Structures are given as C-alpha cells and as structure tokens.
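User: Sequence in, structure out. Go.
Assistant: Echoing your sequence, followed by the structure tokens.
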Amino acid sequence: MLAAPDPVEAAEEVHRRLEALDPPVRHRTLRLLITGLPVADGERALALARVLVRTGTSYLAVCTGLVLLTELGRPQDVPYVRTLGRLRTLVRPVVHTLDALDRPAGALLELRGHCGPVAFGALLAALDAGDRTAVRERLVALPEELAPEVARRVAEASGLVGLLAEVPGLSASEGAALVARAGRLLFLMTTLRDYRPEILSYPDAPRAYEAFARGAGLLPATLDHHALLLSAVQELSTGPAVLHDWGPGRREAALSELTAVLRRPEWCAPPVGEGDDGPVVRRRVAWARRTRAQVLGAPRSPDTRLRIAVHERDPGDPAAIEARVLVDGRPLVPDYFGRGPAHSPEELLFSGALRATDEPREIRLAEAYCTQGCCGALDVTVRRDADQVVWSGWRCPVPPGGKRQLPELRFDAAAYDAEVARAEGDESWMWPARRAARLIADGLRVRPELLTRWGVRLDWAGTDFHDPDVTLISLLYDAEGGHVRQLLWHLPEDGAPPEDRAAAALRRLGEEDPRTYGR
C-alpha cells in the first residue's frame, strides 16, 4: 500500500484492514509496527500519509498517517497536523509527529493540552502573540519546581536557545535572570524521576548548555547559582548529557567556561545560605563545598578508558547516589539501559562487586525503579583474562521494536584495578551519616557473628532518602512461614564523629538482638 499509485484507493484499503483488526491496536503499537518499514517510493508513501491525515475517518487510520508523516512529512504538512491537535484523543499522536516536523509546535501543544492553562497561561499567551520580550519575561517568572518533561517542553516551546542568544543585548539583571532560568530548566531535565532523563529528549541541549556557560559569568555567587553551575559541570562530565552529539571540543569548551567562573575570586568563598539555616540549606551548602572540591580537583588522564564517578545530586532536588561508570568518556548506564540510575557506591564499590577475578562473576550495574521483575536491569559478567579485564554476557531489556547486542568491553587489567581501587577508597563525596553507614557495613563484614548470633543478616547500609543526616541500616531475618522480614534501623545524627557512631552501633549489635530495637 505504501507504493500504491492511487493514494485514495490505498487509504481506503488501510481503513478496511485496520477496521478488521481484532483486537484493535493502539497508537504506540502502530508506531512500533510502521516505524522503520522499508519504503520503496517515498513520494507515494507521503501521498498516502497526507490522504489519511486530511481525510481519514477513523482514529487508527489518522494515526497511521501521522506515523508516516513522522518519517516522511515536510513543513507544509505542519498546519494540517496542528489542526488535528485540537481533538483531545489525537493530542499524543499529533505531538509525536510534531516533534519530528516542528518541535516548538509540539511542545506548545503539550503544554496547552496536558499541563493546564493556569500555570502557563501567561507564557502561552505570549507565545501565541509572538512577543519575544513577553515570552522571556513570562519564562523567567515561571515556578521553580516543574516536572522534568514540563521543563523540556517549556524550553522547546519558548525557543530557549534563541532567547539566550539575545542575552548580550539585555541589561545585566535581565540577562542574569534568563541565564539562571535556563540553568534551572537544564537541571530539572537531568533528574531521574522519570526512567529516561528528559535531557536526552532535548535535541538543543548542547547549544543550551553552551549558551548557559557563556552567560554564567553574569550570575552573582549565591548558593542557588553555585548549585546550578556545579550541577551543570557534573552533568557535562559524567551525566546523560554527555551522550548528545556535541561535535569536537564543544562540550569541553562549555566545561572550561563554567569552571573558569567557579574559579573567580568572588566564587571561591564557600557558599552560604543567605540567612536560611534550615536543614535543606545546610545540606546544600555542604554538598556545594564537597562537589566544588571534586569538580575543580586535579584533571583525570584522558587515556583512562574506565572511569568511575560517584554522583550526588543537589540536595534541593534529591536523588539516589550513583556510582556512574564511564567507558571511553560515555556514561554506560544511560547509554545501554536508560530505565533507572546506576547502582549506589555501596552496591558497586564498597562491596567489591567491580573487582575482577579469574572466576567470572555477574554483577548488576543498574535496575529499573519499578524493579527488575517489571522493566528489567542491566547485568554484566566480569572476568579476568590474562592482562585484560573483560565485560561480556550482557543481560538487558531489548528496546521495544528493536534489536540490540551490547558489545564485549576489554580493559587493561592494571589500569582497571587501579581505577576500581581508587574509586573504592574515595570518600570525598561522603557526609558524616553516609560515612557512618560505610563503617558499620565494613565492621559487619569483618565481624559477621554480630548478626549471625541473632539470625539476622545485612541487607544494605546507607542514609534515609528523606533525611540524609540519618544513617539507615537494613537488616533481614527469616520469620515464621518462610517469610523474610526487613528491619530498618535509624541512627539519627548526634554530633559524634562517624567513627564513634559506628563503634557504638557495632557495640550495641554485640549486646542486643536488633529485632528488639523497636520494642
């Protein structure tokens, strides 16, 4: 049908076949089935798509036309597609097609149809009027907290990169406000509240980061601005944003501009909370100091094929601590998996999981938020082969509608061992409660009898997600009926050094059954 000479007859046949499907398929399934189909005659396939979109009489027929336009459409098709977006049931298929043909139009429709008119009413009105000054002002005035996808859609709909190009012609305060808003939107796009970070769905990310880096010098050295710059350096060094097609030297140049600002005299003073001494501000200040020391530290050798970087996100928008694995400079988990963050340093480093031995061992690098049983995990077998370490035997979900075979990775064994040992010994990212957790876990590995005497075993040791100043120890034990029970032991911050807190915890485990702690 894609190559039929008469597109009207072909469209009628499409209608008949789709109506005969039992059960009917969904738009997403249509996309998977149609995307990538070989097209012998692009012009005839395009003609069929246009007939289906402009005259189709069923949901699935119109969706089929939209999917074809995603691959074959041209600018003159955009008005017809945008008109279909007025129908609520077609918003999602239309947005998907507009993302390929006119991304700002798709973003605008998404904001209008899914995010509600209240929060974005003023911005939408400015966009409809084509008033760029008003768009900039309304963009800066948006709430600080936006969902990751909404942040991306706002950047796309408003033409963020184009607005940033106008910064040199603005007053210092106006330019700084716009640059700060751009940094905030980029930061929100990097969060992993969604399985796949939205920054990977933002094609303009490299240009936006470059413009943010160029304008960073306009920002006063507040805690919030420290956080924006440090977060951008983190992401451009080890985060998913690295996976964009940057071209030679562009990402490195943006990093240089950002670090140059951080090294200015006015930025070298430790950031403070501007009068707010609440727990979140205290954590952010401590995080900024730790992160600054890390990102401005001695540069790594560019010849290191394997790099392991512990990533702690700005506590103002908390996330799990990741042990990011980079191979040839590319973050492996979002590149190969993309359904959740990398595992924690406790799981990958302090447990010795990444160490290579002559005996092959399967390790888990990441797991989907919804657990392995739902959306899978990323597993690899690690083994030593003479003077090399080999990662092979990958187990990872195949992308919908696609096939993928992950490559075997080989590392120089001496360099591999050195990097793993360095990462295992690096505690520069830790805060007191997290260090206490590590010391407790290390103590229990050395003295397992502290738990075995009570019929209890260590599950994990870390910190409370909602209160990172609380050390949290997860213990497991077998209950009646073959069930496994979990015990969460909370150790609040008491001002004592981590070594003393860990020693006290181990001492108590030697004296009292932990199953009685909550009684």
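User: And one key feature?
Assistant: The mean pLDDT is 91.
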